[in-house]
Amino acid sequence: MVVVMQPGATQHQVDAVVAHIEARGGAAFVSRGVRRTIVGVVGDTDICFELDLSRMPGVATVLRVTAPYKLVSAEASGERSVVHVGPPDRRAPIGPGTFTLIAGPPALVSGDQAVEAARLAAAAGASVLRGATYRPRLAPPSPPGMDESDLRTLAEIGRATGLPILVEVVDPADVETVAGYADMLHVGSVNMQNLPLLDQVGRCGRPVLLTRGTHATVEEWLLAAEYIAERGNLDIVLCEAGVRTFDPAVSRALDIGAVPRVQRLSHLPVIVDPSTGAHELVVPLARAAIAAGADGLLVDVHPDPDSVLVDGRCPVAGAVLRELASVLRHLPPLMGRALADARRS
């Protein structure tokens, strides 16, 4: 069961609902998004409904949710969610009605590269700048990762370009530091079920991009999102990045059917990462994602793609990036979506 609070519900009203649930032996999980607060209820369903929570001040509606991922379930909301990334002066929406490009390098070597990558991303229509991973990846050779000075550089570039920034984090101990600079935190596919990390990003007060693990089912993916939501953070964007197959031609096979399926199961926004290990597939897979109803793309952009040493990534530049930019100008409007622009949101 979930209790959906009214948009203007006060903290006192939320606390009263939680206290009422716990007094009858139930467990309550409060999760806050930009526009709504939802209280998930675990316990005897019949007893929970006897509480008559719908009559309490600040409560909009009480719903019986059958899915195991109650807070992020489509049953918990009458409409699909929009997640806003960044401060008010450069805020990018991710959700229905818009199409959001998140772009940037999978690895950085210098500040000059970061500036040039940001310029390329913005020119292609990006409204969120992706920063490099904060720690090395598992497969050698790996870039040296980022330290706090790199985070400061990225934050400065974000302010200069007018773009909020997304940074991947892999160590729970780094979450607070990264959240101090980044506007959105990225949990990559290898960490989708890293529970200590999910616990920390759920408490950090920043929107979270959660990439599906290469071996994870859709339900496992949504349960990972539920784990974040139970820690109080409902500003979650899901990212479909492909699943592991036996075909060595690509690092992952994009499961494009997961996009409409997840949108039926959950109210969370869903974007697609088409960087499956082959440059020539990025634009066709981006077209497929737009046509399937995705809310955005996560694309690797780098001024010198051949120099990037990150396993399984295929950053784009030059003609491929220009073709992608053309696709983003023309295809989303045909699907009833406007290309998001953080500098005019």
From TrEMBL:
Keywords: Transferase
UniProt key word rRNA processing: no
Pfam families documented for this protein: DAHP_snth_FXD, DAHP_synth_1
DAHP synthetase I/KDSA domain residues: 94-329
Keyword Transferase: yes
Domain of life where this protein originates: Bacteria
Domain DAHP synthase ferredoxin-like: from-to ranges: 1-66
SUPFAM superfamilies associated with the record: Aldolase
Gene Ontology MF annotations: transferase activity
PANTHER family: PHOSPHO-2-DEHYDRO-3-DEOXYHEPTONATE ALDOLASE (PTHR43018), PROTEIN AROA(G) (PTHR43018:SF1)
UniProt protein name: 3-deoxy-D-arabinoheptulosonate-7-phosphate synthase
Taxonomic source organism: Thermasporomyces composti
